[in-house]
From TrEMBL:
One of its GO terms (molecular function) is D-cysteine desulfhydrase activity. The active site is at 63 (nucleophile). It comes from Chitinophaga cymbidii. Residues 42-271 form the Tryptophan synthase beta chain-like PALP domain. InterPro entries: ACCD_DCysDesulf, TrpB-like_PALP, TrpB-like_PALP_sf. It comes from the Bacteria. Its cofactor is pyridoxal 5'-phosphate. This is 1-aminocyclopropane-1-carboxylate deaminase. Pfam families: PALP. The modification N6-(pyridoxal phosphate)lysine is found at residue 39. Keywords: Pyridoxal phosphate. Coiled coil: none annotated.
Length: 286
């Protein structure tokens, strides 16, 4: 992949950005129409490790990881199976419809069975964990900051689900990295992220836990207002599960003077826009 810096690195201005702070987004949502965002990076070395074997992975009905795996496997001609949490619904979500049309076999399992993450029915397959959460996923995410010339930024900010991307970013830079957790009570997230660091004693990173808006996948009128406001001011669309919460968090952190004067903030736009398709029309202005 080769991109010009202008395509991927997008500076932005908003009314809530203090005059002495610069900011830009790294638009991972633009790198591929379907395998968008950080999932591209998490899959890269996992699909290499699959070495042509069929792939099996796990996810929920709206999972960015499921759709990304389906598309990436289709591009490489690798058969893949998605083990999906919960009984098969009468109407499949957009995400699952698209994954199926890309050739992914969908296997629905009860929530209890899903928790076991059991892929033993596929003994010949290469198993990618839910969300691409493993060392190879983090290794791929270590390449995110090399997509464009990001050296001039003083602070990196990203949304955090499993912590795989956060770990990859921390492995790739000595600059401070702030992760915005989209989960409620994610007490094990710190250790899980640390386990993927090449230098586990590194301390240039933090996870903030107060911006989840009620928990994973939960939304609020304030979140939608922040996403719409950000789009109107910058033209940059965000998703309701991850990047919208990150942008809303950055706005609130700036109000609290969290970042020192003259900071140059790089917000990782990790993709996920397909998830907005499940919203009723009119909630978002984009
Ligand atoms: C999966 C995902 C994340 C979270 O990445 P982790 O490595 O699991 O922390 C963030 N943003 C988007 C859009 C995602 O799809």
């Amino acid at each position: 992949m080769r991109f010009s810096t202008e395509e991927i690195l997008q500076p932005f201005h908003t009314t809530w950005l203090p005059a002495d702070i610069q900011a830009a987004t790294l638009r991972l949502d633009r790198i591929h129409p379907v395998v968008s965002g950080n999932k591209w990076f998490k899959l890269k070395y996992n699909l290499e490790a699959a070495a042509g074997r069929p792939v099996v992975t796990f996810g929920g009905a709206y999972s960015n990881h499921i759709i990304a795996t389906a598309a990436a496997c289709e591009m490489r001609g690798i058969p893949c199976t998605g083990i999906i949490r919960g009984e098969k619904p009468a109407v499949l979500s957009h995400t699952l419809q698209r994954a199926a049309s890309l050739g992914m076999e969908l296997v629905f399992v009860s929530r209890e069975a899903y928790r076991l993450k059991d892929a033993s029915a596929f003994p010949d397959a290469y198993m990618i964990p839910e969300g691409g959460h493993n060392a190879l996923g983090a290794k791929g995410c270590g390449e995110i900051l090399s997509l464009a010339d990001t050296m001039g930024f003083s602070h990196i900010i990203c949304a955090v689900g499993t912590g795989t991307m956060l770990a990859g970013l921390v492995n790739a830079t000595e600059r401070p990295v702030t992760g915005i957790s989209v989960l409620k009570n994610a007490t094990s997230l710190y250790e899980e992220t640390q386990a993927l660091l090449t230098s586990p004693e590194t301390s240039n990173w933090t996870i903030l836990h107060q911006f989840h808006e009620g928990g994973y996948g939960k939304t609020s009128p304030r979140l939608f207002a922040a996403m719409n406001d950000f789009y109107r001011q910058t033209g940059i669309p965000t998703d309701q599960v991850y990047t919208g919460k990150m942008v809303s968090a950055v706005q609130q952190l700036l109000e609290q003077s969290y970042f020192p004067p003259n900071s140059r903030l790089l917000l990782i736009h990790s993709g996920g826009l397909q998830g907005n398709d499940s919203l009723p029309p009119g909630v978002l202005c984009f």
